[in-house]
Amino acid sequence: MSASVTSPQIVQSNQGNFLDTPQLATGVTRFWLIRHALVEQNARMSLYGTLDVPLCPDSLIAQRPMYEALAARLPRKARWLISPLSRTRCTAEAIQDAGYGPAELKVEPALIEQNLGEWQGMAHQDLPDHLHLAPHPFWSVAASECPPKGESMIDVCARVGRGLDHLAETYAGQDMIAVSHGGAIRAALAHALRIHAETALHFSIQNLSLTILERLEEGWRVVTVNELPGI
């Protein structure tokens, strides 16, 4: 009988961490991670990694409602972060133009996509001849495969994890909107959940999707993954 009694002190200490309402609490260190918009068709035919490829102009027009939904969903008082690649800047600017309003964009190198080294620009059908390991079911390469002069997904997880910890400490208690990349967001989930990079590659991170992470005193918490705006 006594084993089923819950300590009032434990309940008291955890009450503030429950997500009981759609409105997220203020004063929490929170990352709003957005994958950049769809890149143009020719770029999608190859492994573009950290190549600075442009967005698809047609999708920028057709997906305007998604940008408007993101603009309405995101917190007003937030710091905006982008990777060094123009596709994240253009996506951030499109969200701001869709109703959020102007905000300073700070470049955060830790949030860049996986560097595929000498394989960047290679056609997808040519990649298997260069692999040493079987590809991941949901990614072009295994998490431990390191392209020549590039980085493995394990490397990306370490890089992104260090970057998130630094940002969480620098901007403690603030909202951060970060427009980044599919690989980097998967790496962020690996860091938050303390899972292996190979496991993190099972997450689907679609273009313009929203993933929310919180850094609480007790540790990292995942609020939402791959939330599609307006859907």
From TrEMBL:
Its EC number is 5.4.2.-. The keyword Methyltransferase does not apply. The keyword S-adenosyl-L-methionine does not apply. InterPro entries: His_Pase_superF_clade-1, His_PPase_superfam, PGM_Phosphatase. Keywords: Isomerase. One of its GO terms (cellular component) is cytoplasm. One of its GO terms (molecular function) is phosphatase activity. It comes from the Bacteria. It holds the Pfam family His_Phos_1. Gene3D superfamilies: Phosphoglycerate mutase-like. This is Alpha-ribazole phosphatase. The gene is cobC.
